Amino acid sequence: MQTQFIKKMSKLEAGFHLLMLLSLADGSMQKAESEVVIDFLNDHFDGEINLIKEQAFLRALPEEEHEKHFIETAEHFYSISNEDERHTLTRFAMEVVMADESMQQLENKLINKLYDCWAIE
């Protein structure tokens, strides 16, 4: 069940959350991962996001809640996006995960959850 917070998220906010959670899944955010997130924002930023608020929320989110938040956010993004937008986000998601040239176990788990949630084969 999605929270009111998630239901109010824009596509840009939801995409940002998904990419940030993927970047943090291996324990820390590497420079290469942050560059992918910045590229996403540069390609899609239209002033609809308060980065400070979104980053503060993610920093305050307990690590044990990351996966649940990731899944709820992925479901929300699916409900407000079209197929092209989902393909674009999955491309950025794979770039984030592979930015350090290795896919860690939790990164793999989250990517698989994203693909399952969106019925991507």
Description of the structure:
By secondary structure, the protein is mostly helical. Helices cover 71% and strands 0% of the residues. The protein is globular and about 35 Å long. 27% of the residues are buried. The model has no long low-confidence stretch (mean pLDDT 87).
Structure summarized in a few sentences:
The protein is mainly α and about 120 residues long.
What attributes does this structure have?
121 residues; mainly alpha; 7 helices; 0% strand
Structural class: mainly alpha
Average pLDDT score: 87
Distance between the termini: 25 Å
Radius of gyration: 13 Å
What is the chains' assembly state? single chain
Number of strands: 0
Q: Can you give the helix content as a percent range?
A: over 70%
Largest sheet: none
H/E order of the elements? HHHHHHH
Low-confidence stretches: none
Number of helices: 7
Percentage of β-strand residues: under 5%
C-alpha geometry: globular
List the SSEs and their pairings:
Blueprint: H1 4-7, H2 11-24, H3 31-44, H4 51-60, H5 66-80, H6 83-98, H7 105-117
Helix pairs in contact: 2-3, 2-5, 2-6, 3-6, 5-7, 6-7
